[in-house]
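Deliverable D4.2, example record:
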Amino acid sequence: MKDEIWFDHFDSDPYEKVARQVPDSFGHPMSVCLYRITWAYLDWIDETYNSSSDSFFTGNHKLYDPREGDFDSLIEAAVYETFLKREKRHLPRPSWCPPAMPFEYEDID
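Output generated by the structure prediction step:
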């Protein structure tokens, strides 16, 4: 399989911040601003596994404590942790997504 990169599939900047409406823990819409590549990864998960990220957002919103930082950063970190967990288990990833290095996920459960 050919190694691919983001720009083989997309014309946009992967690290541009993009806002979308997602449900909060009460089901109300809230705006979340993430990197375009993070949204693309979440969209890939949803499409690949015929799922919805809504429960991901509502679950994380229930755990959110504003004293610990902003919600957008919490979601970025949670998506990255999800990616690392999947990498550690050798689960599929999008073709445009480079693999994680083993040292990145050695402390991930």
